[in-house]
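Fold it.
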Amino acid sequence: MEPIISFSSADIVNGESIVIYGLDMEVRKGDFVYLVGKVGSGKTSIIRTMTAENPLKKGEGKVCGYDLRKIKPREIPYLRRKLGIVFQDFQLLMDRSVHDNLEFVLRSTGWKKTTEIDDRIEKVLEDVGLTTKAHKMPHQLSGGEQQRVAIARALLNAPEAILADEPTGNLDDETAAGIMKLILDINKEKGTAVVMVTHNRSLLERYPGRVFVCKDETCLEEA
């Protein structure tokens, strides 16, 4: 089975600076991978390299069949459609409803038929347990509900992998546990690979997965 994400001897940059030298990583269908390390250790830079936001100039990298060394600017939106991205701060559009947030993403990624759009939105809201919230505005939702909308948004185009950057960072412990269970259920039931940035070591103990540790300009998998 081809990896969904692979890096070989890849130097990861943040701006002009190399933050990680010689990254080796393979992520396959159904994998649950943590990236851990202190602030500034390069975790988010790896995510940004996966989405082609940061360029890969040295080493090899492939994500969802795209070669990160050779990818053309016009191909980047197509790569990102194959990835579901979840942020710590939700990044919802505050001036429109939950339904309209999700519709905006679908239309901007090429969906045209309103009935198909509505059916897809209903399905992803069902997946995250928010079928009754489609008409709500983001400010009417709790932090946990907003993050569930963000996860629903990540699921819209049936991604091969979800990239989650500190998805529980702004949530209390009980809400965070619900979000972790949701992401794990998606990982197990759909086989969607997950790469999650976190600095919370207790998550690793409660929800085991593969662990890559970023420190001293390296990122190595724990045995």
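DSSP finds seven helices and ten strands in the chain.
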